[in-house]
Design goal:
The chain has about 230 residues and is an alpha/beta fold. The protein has a single domain, classed as Decaprenyl diphosphate synthase-like (Undecaprenyl pyrophosphate synthetase), CATH 3.40.1180. The protein is built from 7 helices and 6 strands, in the order βααβαβαβααββα. The protein has a 6-stranded parallel β-sheet. β3, α4 (about 110-125) and β4 form a beta-alpha-beta unit. The radius of gyration is 17 Å and the shape is globular. Bound molecules: 3-methylbut-3-enyl trihydrogen diphosphate (2 copies) and magnesium ion. One 3-methylbut-3-enyl trihydrogen diphosphate binds near residues 19, 21 and 183.
Length: about 230
């Protein structure tokens, strides 16, 4: 596997998070779904900062799937408005911390001004060397695999596990060591299917806006106890 971490490594190099449960968090509080997305955004920012202080080098967040793009227009507009509101400040913060930002997925499916914001955020943070933050927006793993296969074929003339891995949106990042899904569901919902072949999975019952830094530390402690065998004995 790419960047295989042996059984001894206790801090995951790459953590992926499916940030699920914003809508249910809001519903339980008799609030509109949009309030849940805002609370999720307000949780995401300090959580990411916390994760990097734990020594993790790569973080991949699932923010919006390709399939989510067929949600009601009103909900999507609310999500895009949040991006417009928060993106600039987030980029500045990342830049100060030396974190490189990369948005993965199909940005041509997003409104043009959001695609431009993303591009600027990536350029602004490109020289960051302390860590990498991937945010999956309009992302679907099957779609990514198909794109990567075509890319590998065109540039390398051949598809191998290595050329395909490199052609993925996550590029030369190691495969995720730990994948956390909040919000009680225990499925991958079209996220990092290729990259998570040997990833340790962790499911939390907490809705994403209620997933605290200490819940993340609990997941890390759980990861540290696991024995990763990669098929060996
Ligand atoms: C995750 O929360 C965020 C997005 C998919 C945009 P949901 O919106 O899926 O929240 P639930 O699962 O309905 O609670
Ligand atoms: C997965 O959550 C996508 C994100 C969290 C961005 P969904 O809420 O879309 O997943 P399903 O529909 O429950 O599988
Ligand atoms: Mg959901």
């Amino acid at each position: 596997m790419k960047g295989e971490q042996n059984g001894e490594a206790r801090i995951p190099r790459h953590v992926a998070i499916i940030m699920d449960g914003n809508g249910r968090w809001a519903k339980r509080r008799f609030l509109p779904r949009g309030a849940g997305h805002r609370a999720g955004m307000n949780r995401m920012i300090p959580l990411v900062e916390h994760i990097f202080t734990r020594g993790v080098k790569f973080v991949t967040l699932y923010a919006l799937s390709t399939e989510n793009l067929s949600r009601p227009k009103e909900e999507l507009e609310g999500l895009f408005a949040l991006l417009r509101e928060y993106f600039f400040d987030c980029t500045e913060k990342l830049k100060r911390k030396g974190i490189r930002l990369k948005i993965i997925g199909e940005r041509n499916l997003l409104p043009e001004d959001i695609a431009l914001l993303i591009e600027r955020g990536e350029t602004e943070t490109a020289s960051g060397e302390s860590g990498t933050l991937f945010i999956a927006v309009a992302y679907g793993s099957r779609q990514e695999i198909v794109r990567a296969a075509n890319k590998a074929l065109a540039s390398a003339g051949e598809i191998t596990a290595e050329t395909l891995s490199e052609a993925m949106d996550t590029g030369d990042a190691p495969d995720p060591d730990l994948l956390i899904r909040t919000g009680k569901e225990t499925r991958l919902s079209n996220f990092l299917l290729w990259q998570s072949a040997y990833t340790e999975l962790y499911f939390s019952d907490k809705m994403f806006p209620a997933f605290e830094n200490k819940d993340f530390d609990r997941a890390l402690a759980d990861y540290a106890k696991r024995n990763r065998r990669f098929g060996k004995v």
